[in-house]
Design a protein that fits this description.
Distance between the termini: 66 Å
Structural class: alpha/beta
CATH class of the largest domain: Alpha Beta
Order of helices and strands: EEEEHEHEHHEHEHEHEE
Radius of gyration: 18 Å
Largest sheet: 7 strands, mixed
Shape: globular
CATH topology of the largest domain: Rossmann fold
Helix content: 10-25%
CATH superfamily of the largest domain: Vaccinia Virus protein VP39
CATH architecture of the largest domain: 3-Layer(aba) Sandwich
Number of strands: 11
Length: about 240
């Protein structure tokens, strides 16, 4: 008796959330010859596994810019898990805390519904915390409920589409100089802030980072977008906290 064929498209989960209807779907892309996982918020794409170069680059570049060993890293936004996986695969990372606002996303990883999920949630160096990253960034306690007030070697964020394209109003003040300064209190001296953006480098935002941090620079990430069949450039912004 043969197994039933795997459907070319299926919705794996659908949940209401405080910021809208969230769904996880899997489709088999004949052009790519593989299954593609997509997270949707309403009718808007949040992320896709069809291309993950910039999410991986956020983890790799963010850790590579850190100084020293025994690194403590915060990742804002779990998503499909590619940034968190890249952080754990980098040299010198001792502790990773991932802050995720949406409980269904955490559950998809814990139950193995997403390909990277079980590897992340079973990793002893990695903890996933349900919480509002932006509220925690503005707080005195910070991101890690087990170590309130502690500082970190890197804080890497992949939540909004860009500093100007927000998922909802929670993050409205985060990208201002005041919001970025509040986040910097949770970095060790010389620590790294990293931010993913769906857009090419923006000189105005880089200058805004430089007004808060001692150094800031964009890292363009160009890859072939199979959905549009053309090169596409996204950005990882990096900034170094002062002493």
């Amino acid at each position: 008796m043969t197994d039933p064929p795997v459907p070319f498209f299926e919705e794996l989960d659908f949940r209401p959330t405080p910021i809208g209807a969230l769904s996880l779907r899997r489709r088999h892309d004949l052009r790519l010859g593989l299954d593609v996982y997509e997270i949707m918020l309403g009718h808007e794409f949040l992320m896709t596994s069809a291309f993950t170069a910039s999410e991986v680059a956020l983890g790799q570049e963010g850790v590579a810019a850190c100084r020293g060993e025994d690194l403590s890293v915060i990742v804002g936004g779990l998503g499909l898990g590619h940034t968190a996986r890249a952080v754990l695969d980098a040299t010198g990372v001792a502790r990773l805390c991932v802050v995720e606002f949406l409980d269904p996303v955490i559950e998809w990883h814990q139950t193995g519904l997403l390909p990277l999920g079980e590897g992340l949630t079973s990793e002893p160096r990695c903890r996933v915390v349900e919480g509002d990253f932006f509220a925690l960034a503005a707080s005195a306690e910070g991101f890690d409920p087990e170590n309130p007030g502690c500082t970190h070697d890197a804080i890497l964020v992949d939540i909004d589409h860009s500093p100007d394209a927000l998922l909802d109003t929670r993050s409205g003040g985060f990208y201002t100089p005041e919001g970025l300064a509040a986040l910097s209190r949770h970095l060790k001296p010389g620590g790294i802030f990293g931010l993913w953006s769906n857009e090419p480098p923006d000189a105005a935002f880089t200058d805004r980072l430089k007004s808060v941090f001692v150094a800031a620079w964009p890292v363009p990430v160009t890859f072939h977008n199979p959905l549009q069949d053309r090169p596409f450039t996204q950005t990882v912004y990096l900034a170094r906290h002062g002493a």
